[in-house]
Amino acid sequence: MNKSFGNDDTHLAEWLERMYAPEDEVLAEVRARSAAAGLPDIQVAALDARHLEVLARAAGAKRAVEIGTLGGYSGVAILRGLGPGGELDTIDSEPRHAEVARESFRRAGFGAGARVHVGPALEVLPRLVARGPYDLVFIDADKEGYPRYLDWAADNLRLGGIVLLDNAFLFGHLHEPPAGERATSIKAMQAVHEKLARSGHFRATPLPTGEGLAMGVKI
Ligand SMILES: C[S@@+](CC[C@H](N)C(=O)[O-])C[C@H]1O[C@@H](n2cnc3c(N)ncnc32)[C@H](O)[C@@H]1O
After folding, report:
1. Interior CA angle at 99 toward 94 and 102, to 5°?
2. How far is the CA of 89 from the centre of ligand 1 (A)?
3. Cβ(149) – ligand 1 distance below 6 Å
4. Residue 201 has what pLDDT?
5. Distance between CA atoms of residues 1 and 7, nearest Å
6. For the segment 115-144, what is each residue's pLDDT rounded down to a tens digit?
7. DSSP letter at 31?
8. What are the pLDDT digits (tens) for 56-115?
9. Is the CB of 144 under 6 A from ligand 1?
10. How many helices (H) and strands (E) does the chain have?
11. pLDDT band of 2, cuts 50, 70, 90
């Protein structure tokens, strides 16, 4: 029996994609319109979007922060998980990305529940403190920023709230000694795992998705 960490059988992955059909017409349209607008093809995978929605539902989350909006693909999934009356504050440093995302949220029927903030996350996050505490924080932006984004989440989640970190395996380089052009991002990602696993603020686990989705519950 295969009980290793994750499973990289592509046939099994294709079977699951067919079974769970995670990308509906709304998400497919967000992906296509983002590409047509020239945005990079770096949104979460369709099943990861489903993970976000289901985890938000499981947590009973109503208010969320996302760091790294892009065209709104993961944001739509989170808003679906928040349900009626849910509120998402999502941050991106690129005005063009924010513009595409606002349209995505409007088309998905979440125009009222989504606030897209433009600017570097470390400048925007302090302005969101007054709206907290939040139920969910999703981190999916520059890897060097992850440790400070996690600090913000530790301070601004309610007890029992969840933090989710995408690209938690750093494209397979997480465990390597920090060296070369990836040294800064390897150091940052190793540091954020240490905070998540050992700071005492979270009960955490690295979910073995393709990209790695680290998850912590604030304790
Ligand atoms: C991987 S993409 C986000 C994908 C998105 N979560 C999705 O799955 O649909 C990362 C985004 O973070 C933004 N970004 C990078 N550094 C940032 C920073 N310091 N502050 C805010 N946004 C940043 C980029 O412009 C980019 O749109």
Report:
1. 125
2. 13
3. no
4. 98
5. 12
6. 999 999 999 999 999 999 999 999 999 999
7. H
8. 999 999 999 999 999 999 999 999 999 999 999 999 999 999 999 999 999 999 989 999
9. no
10. 8, 7
11. low
Q: Tell me the best of 23, 94, 171 to mutate to test the pocket of ligand 1, counting ligand atoms within 8 Å of each CB and taking the most.
A: 94
Q: What Cα–Cα distance (Å) separates residue 8 from each residue in 35, 165, 209?
A: 27, 20, 10
Best of 33, 51, 70 for a ligand 1 pocket test (most atoms within 8 Å of beta carbon): 70
Distance, CA of 145 to CA of 122 (rounded, Å):
8
**HSE on the CB side for 176, CA within 13 Å?**
14
Poorest-pLDDT segment among 6-10, 50-54, 175-179: 6-10
Q: Tell me if 42 CB under 6 Å of ligand 1.
A: yes
Q: Which CA distances in Å does 149 have to 6, 12, 34, 80, 109?
A: 26, 34, 25, 23, 28
Ligand 1 nearest-atom number relative to CA 66: 6
172 CA to centre of ligand 1 in angstroms? 20
Give the pLDDT confidence score for residue 111 in this predicted structure.
87
pLDDT of residue 8: 81
Q: 90 C-alpha vs ligand 1 centroid, how far in Å?
A: 10
Other beta carbons within 10 Å of 165: 28
Can you list the positions of beta strands (E) in 81-179?
A: 87-92, 114-118, 134-139, 157-165
